[in-house]
């Protein structure tokens, strides 16, 4: 039943955001009463928190886990993640709506998104730094800036895809972006120098 509730909450949050969704409608969508839903999730905020945590767990599992890739391997990880996301529009829509709402200082998911971006940039930057240390990537690479750029491009492409899924191939566009980025950040071959 928890899975059914999380799926219904994803659809409702995708359509109406956190503030535009109600526990009563989510419960009804699952064939439950509101007290029945509250048996599984004691509050709307707790439901939101579990939905976001479960989304993160599923995404990491779906793309083969996070094994702290180094160098351009971080681009491969993000590429797999975007390809995975292309198959789950409701989840991506819920994430986009909720992250947009979370710019408000009183949103219950604000801390989650602030931390998610902080740790996402830190993890990608650490992987890029491993590539610099190994000589795979350019020594002058601003790893934190590139990591932030990758996440920003992912989010921007997700928005374009959500607005026009029949005209914008998110997975192909992101793959082309990572190919260009890889060429720009790869260290020159010493044999060619």
Question: Care to give the gist of this entry?
Answer:
This protein has 193 residues and is mainly α. It is 70% helix and 0% strand.
Would you give an account of this structure?
The chain has 193 residues and is mainly α. The chain has 2 domains: 1-50, Orthogonal Bundle (Arc Repressor Mutant, subunit A), CATH 1.10.10.60; 63-186, Tetracycline Repressor, domain 2. Helices cover 70% and strands 0% of the residues. The protein has 9 helices and no strands. It has helices at residues 2-16, 23-29, 34-40, 44-62, 73-85, 89-101, 110-133, 143-163, 170-185. Helix 6 (89-101) packs across helix 8 (143-163). The model has no long low-confidence stretch (mean pLDDT 94).
Continuous helix count: 9
If you average the pLDDT, what whole number results?
94
Task: State the CATH class of the largest domain.
Answer: Mainly Alpha
Shape, principal axes of CA atoms: elongated
Domain count: the total is 2
Span of the ends, CA to CA: 61 Å
- Helicity range: 55-70%
Biggest sheet record: none
Structural class of the secondary elements? mainly alpha
Count of DSSP E strands? Answer: 0
Proportion of residues in extended strands = under 5%
Please state the CA-atom Rg, rounded to the nearest Å. Answer: 19 Å
CATH homologous superfamily title of the largest domain:
Tetracycline Repressor, domain 2
CATH architecture of the largest domain: Orthogonal Bundle
